[in-house]
Amino acid sequence: MYIIFVIVFVAIVATAIIVRERDRRKVEYMLDAFEDGEYNFRFDDKSRFNRTLNRIKWIVDRRRSQNETESWSKLIRVLTHEIMNTVGPIASLSDTLSRYTNDEMLKHQQDIAAGLETIGSSSRGLIDFVQNYRELTGVARPIKKPLMVRDLIADVIDLTSEQCREAGALCSFNELSNDTLIYADQTQLSRVLINLVSNAIEAGASQITITSELTADSQTIIRVRNNGAPIPVSSQQQIFIPFYTTKQQGNGIGLSLSRQILQAHNGTLELSSSDATSTEFVLTFR
């Protein structure tokens, strides 16, 4: 009997040592990943220790994203102030001069008028440019209300139906967990999802699939997947940076603004994958 007890005791101690060593390696892996700026990892949620590590990772990643956004917001506020103060008078003066010519300027009137019109047009375009980016520093505080995810997605599909029809694209929704409820600002989240659908269409997607599910640790996950052209690997780490765009006509604020909206909802917006098969964005709500 005593021998059995010793064997069981030794087995328990050995198991504890093995588990402790395995958990220590997980912590070391996570710390190494943080030092390298890598946050695209997740441990299996089967054990409580793993769930704790995942939560720590989520908190650190969220704080990192918030600090990044705050830094960009400060920069944009400064740029907006300086550019508006400089360009405003130029636009006003050029408009005035384009209407004020005298006899001494008749010889070069056409050249002067054309030049002033170019200055005025460029100035007005720059003002519009700055006003678009001003949005990044003025995201309104979300007005949160109980919201069924299926109702949110149904509205988004309805609002983008004409755009999808013209592009020959099909946007569908699959609710993996019944009656998924979030506490959110419907207008702001609709804007995020509409932006993702529009981006997919611009990438040439013919199939856009939105899914939602409630995970075991009470996270609500919304995935937006499309089969359009993939985002270049060289751009995947930069697409959420303000001003950055891969489009000829893009202004580079859509994804950055969308991420800010998710952060205001205590959530995250990430690009989970983008290759020749599909591109997928993931919205996570806790």
Keywords:
single chain; 286 residues; alpha+beta; Heat Shock Protein 90; 2 domains; five-stranded mixed β-sheet; two-stranded antiparallel sheet; 7 strands
Description:
With 286 residues, the protein is an alpha+beta fold. It has 2 domains: 71 residues; 141 residues, Heat Shock Protein 90, CATH 3.30.565. Helices cover 55% and strands 15% of the residues. It is built from 7 helices and 7 strands. Helix 1 packs parallel to helix 2. The longest helix is centred in the N-terminal third of the chain and has 52 residues. The protein is elongated.
Report the radius of gyration as a whole number of Å.
Answer: 27 Å
Shape: elongated
Helix count, DSSP H or I runs of 4 or more residues: 7
- The CATH superfamily of the largest domain bears the name Histidine kinase-like ATPase, C-terminal domain
What pattern of helices and strands is seen along the backbone?
A: HHHEHHEEHEEHEE
Quick structural gist:
With 286 residues, this protein is α+β, with helices and mostly antiparallel strands. Helix content is 55%, strand content 15%. It is built from seven helices and seven strands; from the N terminus they run H-H-H-E-H-H-E-E-H-E-E-H-E-E.
